[in-house]
Amino acid sequence: MCGRVTQFSRWEEIVKEIGAPSAGVRARYNISPGTPLLAVRREQGVLRSEALDWGFVPHWAPAGEAAEGHANARAEGVFERPTFREAARLRRCLVPIDGYYEWKTEGRRKIPYYFRAADGGPLALGGLWSLRLAPDGTSRRTLCLVTVAPNREAGEVHARMPVVLTGDARQDWLSERAFAPADFAALAKTAPDHALSLHRVSPDVNRVAVDDERLVRPVSAGADQADFFGDLLG
Predict the structure, then answer these.
(1) Cβ pair 178, 125 in contact under 8 A
(2) Rounded to an integer, what distance in angstroms lies between the CA atom of residue 54 and that of residue 33?
(3) CB-CB contact of 27 with 11 (8 Å)
C-alpha cells in the first residue's frame, strides 16, 4: 500500500511542467488517507489542480459507505473490480509529491522509511478519482493511489509501491480518452530499479497529528523508540 505522502517543496514543479494551474497550499509532511490531497486531473479538457479527499468512494456507493473509502487500488485486475473500473477507464489523476512513507515489518515492529526520487526531484503518482453526488445535491470528489509490484528499492521495505509516472506518461495518464486494460497496463508499471532512494525515519510519523519537517530527516536504528503501529490511522 501507499498510506502517507508529503507535499512540502518541489512537488509543484510537476504542476507547472504539465501546464496545470498553480496550486499553492501549505507545506505538509504527513498526509494520510481521510484528509485532502492535492491532485491534478483533467475534466472537459481543462486541467485542474485541487485537493480531493484521499479515500476513493465510487459514485454509486450507498449513503452509508465508510467515509474514508479506499486509499489504494491495485493495478492488477483493476478493470475486473466494479469499484475502480470506470475511473480506470475515464477518471485518472496525478498526485505530485515530494516523497512517501512505507513501513517495513521486523518481527512485531513496523519501521518507517521515507522514499523520494533518486535525483532529489518530485514524484508524480498515478491516481484515480471519483465524483459522488449526495441526495441533498452536494458533491464530493475522492481519489486513491494506484499501486504495483515493487522495484528493487521499494521491495526492501514493502510488497507494493505506487505507480510513478515520468515524461510523456504523465500527460497520457491525464488524457480523457477511454482506456482499455492494455492502455492502463502500459502506464501503470513498476518504476525502474534505482529510480528511488530511501532512508529510515522517526516513528513519530506514525502519529497523524505530527506534521513537520523533522519527519523526513534520516535517523539511525538506535534513535528508534517504541513503535505503536496502531497509531498509523488514528
Answers:
(1) no
(2) 5
(3) no
Give the residue carrying C-alpha cell 501549505. Answer: 26
Per-residue model confidence as pLDDT tens digits over 177-217:
999 999 999 999 999 999 999 999 999 999 999 999 999 99
Question: Which grid coordinates belong to 171?
Answer: 500527460
**Could you tell me the pTM of the whole model?**
0.92
Residues 134-146 have a mean pLDDT of 87
- How far apart CA 187 and CA 173 sit, in angstroms, is 7
Identity of the residue numbered 189:
K
- The candidate with the shortest Cα–Cα distance to 145, out of 200, 218, 94, 198, is 94
pLDDT digits (tens, 9 = 90+) for 72-130: 999 999 999 999 999 999 999 999 999 999 999 999 899 999 999 999 999 999 999 99
Q: Residues of 133-165 as b/e, b for ≥16 C-beta within 10 angstroms?
A: eeeeeeeebbbbbbbbebbebbeebbebbbbbb
